[in-house]
Amino acid sequence: MDKNDFNFLKFRTELIELLFEENVKNNYFENKIGVFTNDRDKAVKLFTNLYHDKRQEIDYYRNSREMQEIRLLDGTQYLWIGPIDNSRGHKCGKAYIDKNLTLNELDYVIPICYCSRENVIVF
In sequence order, what are the residues at sequence separation of 6 or more whose Cβ sits closer than 8 angstroms to the Cβ of residue 73? Predict the structure, then answer.
């Protein structure tokens, strides 16, 4: 990866973060964490890492071709949500957002997220 590629990815990360306000308090969906990517391999890798990191805390784990979900004993839910039109019914208070999403895909993600910039992780 050359310097221009790195700068572009850094710019995309900052752009996504700027779509969210800072210090927004939301108590309603803070236990729902959306993982937004259309890249199945990225979703599987992130959920595999979560599974290994939180193995002792997991209440439910679903790993299928179309769905990745982890629920912890404290009620926290991680859910893979594809950035498409029918994903709008989901609500989340924290988000992992793929830096490779297009602006059209981000249009589906932003209304779903009730979170502040601090609760957004761009990966």
Answer: 57, 58, 59
